[in-house]
Amino acid sequence: MKIHFKLTxxxxxxxxGDLLRPHGHAAERxxxxxxxxxxxEDHLIILGSDYHPVEDEHYEFDPRxxxxxxxxxxxxxxxxxxxxxxxxFHIHCHEHLGEPRPSRVDWTEWAKFVxxxxxxxxxxxxxxxxxSKDRLSGWCWFPGQNxxxxxxxxxxxxxxxxxWEAAR
Amino acid sequence: MISPEHSEELRGFxxxxxxxxxxxxxxxxxxxxxxxxxxxxxxxxxxxxLHSREGYSTRLYLSTRIADRGVNWTVVYLLDxxxxxxxxxxxxxxxxxxxVLVGHLKALQ
Amino acid sequence: xxxxxxxxxxGKDSTDILRNGRVGIVGLGGGGSHVAQQLAHIxxxxxxxxxxxxxEDKNHNRTVGGTAADVDAKTPKVRIAxxxxxxxxxxxxxxxxxxxxxxxxxxxRGCDAIFGCVDSYAERDxxxxxxxxxxxxxxxxGMDVSKSESGQVVHGQVILSLPGSLCMxxxxxxxxxxxxxxxxxxxxxxxxxxxxWPNGVLASTAVGLFIQLILPWxxxxxxxxxxxxxxxxxxxxxxxxxVNALSSVSCSHFDGSEGEGDPFWNAEDAITxxxxxxxxxxxxxxxxxxxx
Lengths: 168, 109, 292
Description:
- Chain A is an alpha/beta fold.
- Chain A is 23% helix and 36% strand.
- Chain A has helices at residues 9-19, 71-84, 104-113, 117-120; strands at 3-8, 30-39, 44-53, 59-60, 68-69, 87-93, 126-131, 136-141, 149-150, 153-157, 162-165.
- By secondary structure, chain C is α/β, with parallel strands linked by helices.
- Chain C has ten helices and nine strands.
- The interface between A and C is large, with 36 and 41 residues.
């Protein structure tokens, strides 16, 4: 299954602007991207719609991980999915050039909360994205399937049109 | 926003009724609309437009063209689907949605 | 030396970027045939071509790639364009859809850019709507010949419509009254005068805008959507005054529908459809005529 993720330059700028702000105790910030869907000839299409930062007060202190957010942050994201009929993708930054790769902690955390979104929107895919200085990578969990699928292609549209195929 | 009463009345003609929005325009999606007798196919999906659009005071769009009925058929992209519509003027929006629908279905009898 | 060596000023990764782009061309007549030819020469390799018509005598004064034999054979226009592209670059993968583009939506949704080379305002309006829904850069071209007191006036436009930026309605190129009048004519937009050289100028400008989007070779690039007015009598292509007049305006015509995707989308159907597509092998010579 091939997945094509599209979003605007403005949205990427907005996400980066929020995710790179320092936080009082969290080493990194995270956020949620609401998404809509379509199908092309040979790809599932995911369209990045709106970015929703995790509020400062929703981060919990945990020096073992870059960022931990509490139930309030999840509730807010769940409400968004329910009210707007959107898929939710968790996003955070890896500040380097090139395709970002998830750490073991990333996988562990994603596996914990992504299934929560199926409580409110069981019919939609949800997932996670990583944002580097010049690239995105992502994984999508489909309803009823345990293993995520890597997003194979990205397009960022704006003053500059950029697209690339993810590494296999 | 369509009232529950009007929605229920429309359901007499189809399997389901759903309001759908494209920008500022609202359409009524009629799933499995039953067409007049002897029309093929017997059921289609449809969009009922109750507002003025491109010179028509109301309009009905179908998921497929109906052979031998209607004139000047055109193909339209709406709500990310292909729809077929024909030239049929004068169905006033100042009546119940079900009456608007019947007014358009007259062209297919 | 590669056949693209002379365009190395576009950047060291330009060959790969061109090769990996996906471009739709709707309308393969006077404008679209030029666009197809130029994109193939420059190294674009993934094309979706949509046109329901076959080649006729009346097209022969302006369609790049069309031959006298094509007139006799009534060759589909998409086949002519596909042949043209693959004669230039046999590696190009062309989905040639001999049907209205509204019946080829799965092919177009995955495009990175769509060139609209169509005759009617309604078609342009709908193509722009598709492009905004699926965050696709849309480039529109068109020409016309009008009568004036002193003779004929050849004119046209090139419009780059970017998601998040001004649209053809913002530029007043599309207007509700125009669409209404055209609908009353039942979409009989064809039959207007058409000649090859204005189409060539418009197509070249459009291709240049696309290349500048993906491979900007200079930092002095105007941000956002743009419109160019072509004066075929004075042989000028100038930035439309409307662009500067709207510099502080945001588009409100697609509020809530940009990036909206498919409102009927269903995960189960989507997975089935994509999985089925995955088992098909794509032959560059494959053309597709979807059923109505």
